[in-house]
Amino acid sequence: MNVLQITSAGACVTLRLNRPEKRNALNKALLQAIRDALNTLRHERHLKLLIIRSAGDKAFSAGADIKEQTMFTPQQAYDHMRWGQAIFDEIEHFPLPTLAVIDGFALGGGLELALACDMRFATTRSSFGNPEITLGNHPGWGGTQRLPRLIGQSFAREIMFSGLPVSAERALQMGLVNQLFVPETLDAGVCRFAEAICQHYTPALRTLKAVTEAANHTDMERGQQLEASSVSRLWGAAAQKEAQYAFFNKT
């Protein structure tokens, strides 16, 4: 059985974690499969949206496959954390929009995987948490850095220090989740969103991803310079002219 299923629908590609019998735990094979897929897909010029979701309705991912890590030396633990961080960095810096679709719990490394995506949609039966502290440790695949940046230090510390799960409703209030659906409407909601994105001009999506990423590591003035430069590079392209014409000629 393939631990990662890859499917395409037009300009949207879905990576589906496929270890439902293990609650989609992230073992080395699955992480490497994700990395290989990213390396291929980043060069697909027709692609407009990358979705990451999971098989089954119990878990997006229970986190790292702990059985692989029990015999690590401190150096091996460090190397494994850096390896996982590099893969999640590749998700964060993927050149097009990324969406995590969560149905069930997203814990530990599973939450860290979702945090690496641009957006997160979830069902009301989902829950979120970083239980690593209950094992005498803490998140190691970027969670200590991404979670505070997303929801603020206070909420992030509450989740990480307690090790307790957070409900989908509270995750929405915290800003951890973008949209929340009852399970029966999840696929329709994801489809509507995908259709909205996939109607847009691919170079504009790629440029917008790069400019919004720059907001994380540059000052306001430099960011606005990048913004203006990006608009100017897109200006006058055939697709941009067509979009303007369509806008001004609506009936």
How would you sum up this structure, described in words?
The structure is a single chain. By secondary structure, the protein is of the alpha/beta class. The protein folds into two domains: 195 residues, 2-enoyl-CoA Hydratase, Chain A, domain 1; 47 residues. Helices cover 47% and strands 17% of the residues. It contains ten helices and ten strands. The strands form two sheets. It has a six-stranded mixed β-sheet with strand order 1-2-3-5-7-10, sandwiched between helices. The chain has a four-stranded mixed β-sheet with strand order 4-6-8-9. Strand 1 and strand 2 form a beta hairpin. Helix 3 packs across helix 4 and helix 4 packs across helix 5. The longest helix has 19 residues. The relative contact order is 0.11. The mean pLDDT is 95.
Shape: globular
Average residue-wise pLDDT: 95
Secondary-structure content class: alpha/beta
**H/E series, N to C?**
EEHEEHEEHEEHHEHEHHHH
Count of beta strands: 10
What is the alpha-carbon Rg in Å? 19 Å
InterPro entries: ClpP/crotonase-like_dom_sf, Enoyl-CoA_hyd/isom_CS, Enoyl-CoA_hydra/iso
Keywords: Lyase
Protein name: Enoyl-CoA hydratase
GO molecular function, one term: lyase activity
